[in-house]
Amino acid sequence: MSAASLIRYALVFLAVAVGVALLVGFLNTQIDSALGSSAQLMVPAMIAAVIEGQQFARREKRKPGGAEAWNFAWIATVIAVALNVALAYGAGRWLPEFGKLAVTEPGSRQFLILLGLYAGGYLICNRFFLGIAAGNQVSLMRGRGEIE
């Protein structure tokens, strides 16, 4: 995966994360509830990996090989974890939904455990959704006669 792919992944991740946080915050004020869950942490990674899988297939006219997909998944996981930590501890003042993620003191044992759990979830999401999206895009392109 190229540097442009990783930058696009980061931008999509940020856009979706902020969009979901704003939507959840808006809905919470409108219906006087406490929406939001840990699932909202994974949605940005899922969508960003889907977009990257589609882009890879369009550009390369194939699905990524196992090593390519895992390399992307690992790097994208580092990006996702870094953005998640930055949003939780940096943007919590402006977007309360992110502040809810900052439940532990940075560097504590609980922080490291949560970081590991998030990283594992992001790794699985990135690898799984990259492959699914690339495979679907290749099938679509075959159906259109764009590739053999």
Give a verbal description of the structure:
The protein is mostly helical and 148 residues long. The chain has helices at residues 3-31, 39-60, 66-90, 96-99, 109-143. The longest helix has 35 residues, at 109-143. The two termini are 23 Å apart.
How does the overall form come out from the CA principal axes?
globular
The total beta strand count reads 0
Radius of gyration: 17 Å
**Which oligomeric form is depicted?**
single chain
State the secondary-structure class: mainly alpha
Beta-strand share of residues: under 5%
Uncertain residue ranges: none
Distance between the termini: 23 Å
Helix content: over 70%
Order of helix and strand elements from N to C terminus: HHHHH
What average pLDDT do the residues reach?
A: 88
The largest sheet, given as strand count, sense and whether it forms a barrel, is: none
Query: How large is the count of helical segments?
Result: 5
Short account of what is shown:
With 148 residues, this protein is an all-alpha fold. Helix content is 78%, strand content 0%. The chain is globular.
Task: Identify the notable features of this structure and list them briefly.
148 residues; mainly alpha; 78% helix; globular
Give me the secondary-structure topology.
Layout: H1 3-31, H2 39-60, H3 66-90, H4 96-99, H5 109-143
